[in-house]
Amino acid sequence: ELKVEQNPLFLSMQEGKNYTIYCNYSTTSDRLYWYRQDPGKSLESLFVLLSNGAVKQEGRLMASLDTKARLSTLHITAAVHDLSATYFCAVDNSRIQGGSEKLVFGKGTKLTVNP
Amino acid sequence: ETGVTQTPRHLVMGMTNKKSLKCEQHLGHNAMYWYKQSAKKPLELMFVYSLEERVENNSVPSRFSPECPNSSHLFLHLHTLQPEDSALYLCASSQDTGRFQFFGPGTRLTVL
């Protein structure tokens, strides 16, 4: 059974600082997604990573995928208050042999950026 | 309208009520999903429909009954729910299962 673990689950950081959120998963898959969720709102798609070594960047966020290590990172550069949200990674279970057709989500990382 | 829409956005119901949640996607996708998001649990997949056929049912109690009449519409029929069913119910769609899923705004359900 595919398991997806994120850490940290809670992250409080100062504006202007850098930090990384980690997403580990238990079974090889070559497709991983990052989502953002603001309080009381739905999930907003951020990145899709489709191959080993894939790197995507949007503003102050950069995501990467290492399929051999079964690890994805979401790096935050010079954080600003607007980035405060919960960030989820999700792994495509359908890409795993015998896997069912679904995404398996991590528990989310709640990020708070303090002024 | 664009994207994925859900109605109602908020719903309060008693345990003996019957209600339905509606989801509509305007993206031309052929896969649709229901998720449950509780305060203390990770996002839980409930149902997956691909080309209007159910392909995944994650041991969801029978008091939740999905319906997918066509590739653009998805319903979740609710009957004799329990207070622990109170949660945010999210609908999503994608072009084929396993592809990037686009989420609706959710229905905040409270069961009294």
Topology (SSEs and partners):
The complex is a heterodimer of chains A (115) and B (112).
Chain A: E1 4-7, E2 10-14, E3 19-25, E4 32-37, E5 43-49, E6 55-58, E7 61-66, E8 71-76, E9 85-92, E10 103-105, E11 109-114
Parallel strand pairs in A: 2-11
Antiparallel strand pairs in A: 1-3, 3-8, 4-5, 4-9, 6-7, 7-8, 9-10, 9-11
Chain B: E1 4-7, E2 10-13, E3 18-25, E4 31-37, E5 44-50, E6 53-57, E7 64-70, E8 73-79, E9 87-94, E10 102-103, E11 107-111
Parallel strand pairs in B: 2-11
Antiparallel strand pairs in B: 1-3, 3-8, 4-5, 4-9, 5-6, 7-8, 9-10, 9-11
Question: Overview of this structure, please?
Answer:
Chain A contains no helices and 11 strands. Helix content of chain A is 0%, strand content 54%. With 115 residues, chain A is an all-beta fold. Chain A is globular and about 40 Å long. Chain B is an all-beta fold. Chain B has no helices and 11 strands. In chain B, the strands form 2 sheets. In chain B, strands 2, 4, 5, 6, 9, 10 and 11 form a 7-stranded mixed beta sheet that branches. A 4-stranded antiparallel beta sheet of chain B has the order 1-3-8-7, with no helix packed on it. In chain B, a hairpin with a 2-residue loop joins strand 5 (44-50) and strand 6. The radius of gyration of chain B is 13 Å and the shape is globular.
Largest sheet of chain B: 7 strands, mixed
Task: Name the shape of chain A in a single word.
Answer: globular
Share of helical residues of chain A: under 10%
Most residues in contact: chain pair = A-B, 23 and 20 residues
Count of discrete alpha- or pi-helical segments spanning 4 or more residues of chain B = 0
Tell me what portion of residues of chain B adopts beta-strand conformation: over 45%
Radius of gyration of chain B: 13 Å
Quaternary structure annotation: heterodimer
